[in-house]
Amino acid sequence: xxxxxxxxxxxxxxxxxxxxxxxxxxxxxxxxxxxxxxxxxxxxxxxxxxxxxxxxxxxxxxxxxxxxxxxxxxxxxxxxxxxxxxxxxxxxxxxxxxxxxxxxxxxxxxxxxxxxxxxxxxxxxxxxxxxxxxxxxxxxxxxxxxxxxxxxxxxxxxxxxxxxxxxxxxxxxxxxxxxxxxxxxxxxxxxxxxxxxxxxxxxxxxxxxxxxxxxxxxxxxxxxxxxxxxxxxxxxxxxxxxxxxxxxxxxxxxxxxxxxxxxxxxxxxxxxxxxxxxxxxxxxxxxxxxxxxxxxxxxxxxxxxxxxxxxxxxxxxxxxxxxxxxxxxxxxxxxxxxxxxxxxxxxxxxxxxxxxxxxxxxxxxxxxxxxxxxxxxxxxxx
Length: 382
Ligand SMILES: [Zn+2]
Prior knowledge:
Blueprint: H1 2-14, E1 26-31, E2 34-38, E3 52-56, H2 57-65, H3 72-85, H4 99-104, E4 109-113, H5 116-122, H6 127-135, E5 139-142, H7 149-166, E6 172-175, E7 179-184, H8 187-202, H9 218-235, E8 243-247, H10 250-255, H11 259-262, H12 271-277, E9 283-284, H13 290-308, E10 314-317, E11 321-326, H14 329-349, H15 360-379
Parallel strand pairs: 5-6, 9-10
Antiparallel strand pairs: 1-2, 1-4, 2-3, 4-7, 6-7, 8-11, 10-11
Zinc ion binds next to loops.
């Protein structure tokens, strides 16, 4: 049965960090007039028949064609309400924010992932031209657009334009600074399509990241971790349980050689990176002068807190590595995983003209959005 196959596919891609991390990505299957789509707040790795929301496809088409107010906030508010109203009776969960994109892809199965290998193209200077070089004219490129209704409509227009030109639907969509959407009518085709995509990109990538471990100054890293925790506690007084842990390897060491070398990782590449690893990564040059180090750490943490309302999940220190900061192991694990994902994206993007972060307007939009998410987590007692 289709839903069982969807659960299998979701677990398969959800379990592999080369496709998605944490709560990233979403999947769907169409069955007659019903779309089963991943519920927001669930992970693909833990997919089950209960983690999908049943949506009325006729109503989803209605959302795509309805005329909404011009005001962006009011438009998105109404569109979200209509999306909630498009759930089949009895559905309580919130459908993925990318539900409309799934409805628009004219294939039975749709898998949306954030693979660092493919994001080496979506987050690169060459962008669209690299996508065409790698995939030929089988791919649709969707430029940076704020998530929500406007992105869904842009995807719809791009699919229509492709259809007029090729008399066929596109199986691969690349979302700039975001990820991959791939569609097929059988689960087998979904798997072979993803294999093909990986093979094609790998054929164009000059080198893979080197995550081998390296020796580092343990005493210095403990001292700085202690200072990071101290300053975080001073700034964010309600959180005594802060921890800070050094993360480094051969590739990270290459990036933290200098502020210039770190530039590709200074700002977030994609929405996932913002949510889990921060909208930017402060870079600190620290000497052995402990007073100066205290001040520099305090200033960096304070500036980040003022911008985003939280302590930076990741802080880079020249010639050492990055510190992962957080209050729970789960959040620290996610921050480390997403930072390593960003390192991979930066390395792969070297083969496509170099890395490009999310534009500031979009970063701001997603940060505002994340505050909403954060609030709902707080109210849920997390
Ligand atoms: Zn996504």
